[in-house]
Amino acid sequence: MTQDELKAIVGRAALDYVTPGEIVGVGTGSTVNKFIEALATLKDQIIGAVSSSEASTARLKAVGIPVFDCNEVEEIAVYIDGADEIDPAGYMIKGGGAALTREKIVAAQSKRFICIADQSKLVHTLGAFPLPVEVIPMASHRIMRQFFALGGKPVLRLKDGKPLVTDNGQHILDVQGLRISDPLGFEAMVSLWPGVVEVGVFAHHKASVCLLGTEQGVKTLKFD
Ligand code: 5RP
Questions:
Q1: Which pLDDT score is estimated for 224?
Q2: Ramachandran class of 95: left when φ > 0, alpha when ψ lies in -120 to 50, beta otherwise
Q3: What is the best residue among 7, 9, 30 to mutate for testing ligand 1's pocket, by most ligand atoms within 8 Å of CB?
Q4: Which of this chain's residues are annotated to bind substrate (predicted)?
Q5: DSSP assignment, residue 122?
């Protein structure tokens, strides 16, 4: 199976976690795009979605799924999103699509996080994927120095030769060379640095379940 096919099978498998009559939390990325395609087949059975990015909002609306603001709903039963890396405890690196802040906000509002990922995303220790960190631009150089001090190599993410601007109007640093052996401690530490909007380690809001696309089909990993 190609990586695209693996993403499609987990996108479809995630429908099992969607309960009719509910609002679904929807993440961002190419795997989630497969989920949105699948969710369109259930659109008459759900109330709608809360989305983690302008890109997913546009896709949801294009298939006729109503999108609600986070502030219009209380607890969301399930949040379905991809990951750049996931470890055997369900801790993740996210933000390859620059949507990490809104992703963490919707994840925090959701009872369960269902991660959908192809097998390449499962790692022993987080950090081979450059860690995305959303930052307020005036703090970016100091935050870069703080990552250098930890042995990381931060790079400002560019788009068309200019700093990428997130849906929240901020910038992204991608930090290479980290080995995150204590995801809970690392997330807590970086979150305290002034100017960090959000760090792409999802440890305090880790996955409850990972639907992993493998050559043998969808493997379900449970973390709680
Ligand atoms: C976006 C994300 C994505 O979930 C992550 O980058 C995985 O994306 P894809 O499904 O395209 O591999 O965190 O900010």
A1: 73
A2: left
A3: 30
A4: 28-31, 81-84, 94-97, 121
A5: B
CATH of the domain at 48: 3.40.50.1360
Query: Ligand 1 centre and the CA of 73: distance in Å?
Result: 24
Is 213 assigned to a binding site? no
Q: 144 and 76: one domain?
A: no
Q: Please choose from 3, 31, 168 the residue to mutate so as to test ligand 1's pocket, defined by most ligand atoms within 8 A of CB.
A: 31
DSSP for 129-181, please give it: SPEEEEE-GGGHHHHHHHHHHTT-EEEE-EETTEE---TTS-EEEEEES--BS
- Name the domain count of the chain: 2
Question: Residue type at 19?
Answer: T
Instruction: Looking at the structure, tell me whether residues 165 and 144 fall in a common domain.
Output: yes
Please indicate, yes or no, whether residues 39 and 110 belong to a single structural domain of this protein: yes
Atom of ligand 1 nearest to the CA of 82: 4
Are residues 159 and 59 part of one domain?
no
Question: What residues does ligand 1 touch, defined as CB less than 6 Å away?
Answer: 27-31, 81-84, 94-100, 103
The tokens of 104 are what? 């963490």
User: Relative to the CA of 7, which ligand 1 atom is closest?
Assistant: 10
- Between the CA of 93 and the centroid of ligand 1 the distance, in Å, is 9
Domain that holds residue 136: 131-199
pLDDT tens, per residue, the chain with 224 residues: 999 999 999 999 999 999 999 999 999 999 999 999 999 999 999 999 999 999 999 999 999 999 999 999 999 999 999 999 999 999 999 999 999 999 999 999 999 999 999 999 999 999 999 999 999 999 999 999 999 999 999 999 999 999 999 999 999 999 999 999 999 999 999 999 999 999 999 999 999 999 999 999 999 999 97
Domain match, 168 and 95 both: no
The CATH number of residue 179's host domain is 3.30.70.260
- Alpha carbon 124 to its chain centroid, in Å, reads 18
